[in-house]
């Protein structure tokens, strides 16, 4: 394939041979390097999307050893470390990217993301403060909302969540986060509304289904919401509801829900069965 590209580069004069004879070795090497860059860019994209996270980390580390200082490779390493569940290491890489001559405001947002994942909330807040107000993106406001949440600045959190949800065509994740924020504040009706809204955008988001059940159970609504669910999910949601009922002192209701969960699950539901046995006083040590 590379040979064909080089041939095409030479086909600019009246004669192929005459055109190529005019090329110096340096020109040929530059052409080959250009093709290599294109090939590597494609591979970088593949490693970031479908590659195993740990393999991607190794790939970008190796690429940076051969070509240190390349900001696109540094970004790839930072993203791969986050995917591999190594946010603290990722934050160190993103710090280098931000300090790079080609560092951008979006890189600062990525640094804040890694810092939050690594539970470095103060650092994340400081990083976001360096991003100018004109940089209005979904990720920026999503992270601003999470930082405000961590400080229990509910008014600011609500404002940022609302802005973030309006800046994406796929707001299910941020609506779920917003709902969980409402849940921790014990604003159960508000949480219920947001979880239901998240599921309209992403009906298969089980986390939102589970959170929705918790918000409803906190209001003593012990019936399952009308949402799409598999039989296994139905059993798991009944189990969540049962535990919430028991925690609130509605033990008889919880016991009935546990039995439903055991009966509904297509396989043996060990956790629900164990909880039911504990209520019956039949736990075997």
UniProtKB/TrEMBL annotation:
Q: Which Pfam families match?
A: TPR_19, TPR_6
InterPro entries to which the protein is assigned, alphabetical = TPR-like_helical_dom_sf, TPR_rpt
Q: Which PROSITE patterns match?
A: PROKAR_LIPOPROTEIN
Top-level taxonomic group: Bacteria
Which residues fall in a coiled-coil region?
none
- Gene3D superfamilies from the xrefs? Tetratricopeptide repeat domain (1.25.40.10)
Mind telling me what this protein is named? Tetratricopeptide repeat protein
């Amino acid at each position: 394939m590379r040979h064909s590209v080089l041939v095409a580069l030479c086909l600019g004069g009246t004669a192929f041979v005459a055109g190529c004879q005019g090329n110096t070795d340096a020109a040929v090497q530059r052409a080959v390097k250009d093709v290599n860059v294109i090939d590597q860019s494609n591979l970088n994209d593949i490693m970031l999307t479908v590659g195993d996270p740990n393999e991607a980390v190794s790939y970008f580390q190796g690429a940076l050893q051969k070509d240190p200082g390349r900001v696109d490779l540094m970004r790839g390493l930072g993203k791969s470390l986050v995917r591999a569940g190594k946010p603290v290491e990722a934050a160190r890489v993103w710090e280098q990217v931000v300090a790079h001559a080609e560092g951008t405001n979006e890189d600062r947002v990525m640094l804040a993301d890694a810092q939050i994942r690594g539970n470095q909330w103060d650092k994340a807040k400081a990083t976001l403060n360096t991003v100018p107000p004109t940089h209005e993106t979904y990720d920026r406001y999503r992270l601003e909302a999470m930082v405000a949440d961590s400080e229990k600045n509910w008014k600011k959190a609500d404002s940022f969540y609302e802005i973030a949800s309006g800046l994406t065509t796929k707001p299910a994740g941020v609506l779920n986060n917003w709902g969980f924020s409402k849940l921790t504040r014990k604003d159960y009706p508000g949480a219920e509304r947001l979880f239901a809204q998240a599921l309209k955008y992403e009906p298969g988001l089980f986390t939102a289904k589970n959170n929705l059940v918790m918000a409803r159970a906190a209001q003593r609504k012990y019936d399952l919401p009308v949402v799409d669910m598999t039989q296994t999910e139905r059993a798991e949601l009944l189990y969540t509801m049962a535990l919430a009922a028991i925690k609130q002192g509605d033990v008889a209701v919880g016991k009935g829900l546990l039995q439903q969960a055991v009966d509904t699950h297509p396989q043996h539901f060990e956790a629900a069965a164990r909880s039911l046995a504990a209520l019956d006083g039949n736990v075997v040590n």
